[in-house]
Amino acid sequence: MLKVGVIGLGYWGPNLVRNFYHHPEVEVVAICDLNPANLQKIKNKYKDIPICTTNYMEILKNDIDLVAIATPPETHYSIAKNCLLADKHILVEKPFTMSSKEGEDLIKIAEKKNLKIFVDHTFVFHPVVRKMKEIIDSGELGEIYYFDSERINLGLLQKGVNVIWDLAIHDFSIISYLFPNLSFVKVQAFGSKHIHPYYEDIAHVILESKDGFIAHIHVSWLSPVKIRKTIIGGSEKMLWWDDIHPFEKLKIYDSKIEIDFSKEDPFHPTYIKGEITIIPVENYEPLHKEVDSIVKSIKNNTKHQVDGYEGLKIVKILEACNKSLLNNLKVKL
Question: Which SUPFAM superfamilies does the entry mention (predicted)?
Fold first, then answer.
């Protein structure tokens, strides 16, 4: 049995406890949170977890294989480092770290100790994202032109990061998974602070690649309605993902524009609007798949899809967004 400890039982930690607890090859042996009420709530639900503490260093003294870290982002580096130094594999909630320097340091320690780093980019394991990759890889969409995402809601404002680090990070991880060979060369971020005293609560991010592919991401904590939609446009067809829709989440639009450049006056485009196909998608909890993949990676000593290097890649994009916001310019990646 893989022995697991979870540090941080606020918003996301209880989900980690639940999924690890119910995995047949895992034993959750320790939980930790600074708030005794959070600890007691989990202890009441999972009465056989033996170690419950407000001091995470107590967890590290025990025989534990993996520590899952679901604490505020600014604490990730120090906690993760201590876990690695105590010879524990780590799963770190997004964002991996608050700087690329911190991420590089953790990777260096893990490699020296032959330990694994997992970064909790849960959307990589989402059934719709998996189906989207299958469709993109099949070539059905043709040449991919753009990725356009809107991820907005009323809150939840975060204490230690801006809305890009909180929400757009999901889209960065999705893009990285869908297009692993895509290399962005520039990023520009626009944002403003209205309610949050320190950080941007609404933002737009534009990522540019060498071959003309562009990604636009709109994120906000200040929307009266919750919207989670993504469009991926190709030369032949287009994908639409509405994560809020109860059952018609993914559609393919057989829509495109054709121009006959052989004519003397070619600019008389033909607008083709064909069938709309609703794509059936499996129904499962992404975190369940993620936890299972982590367990398999440790047991079989195999490379994981979202390791420290993948987490670092996303942190570098986030850093570039911060630089762009600060200086109001495009930043090279």
Answer: Glyceraldehyde-3-phosphate dehydrogenase-like, C-terminal domain (SSF55347), NAD(P)-binding Rossmann-fold domains (SSF51735)
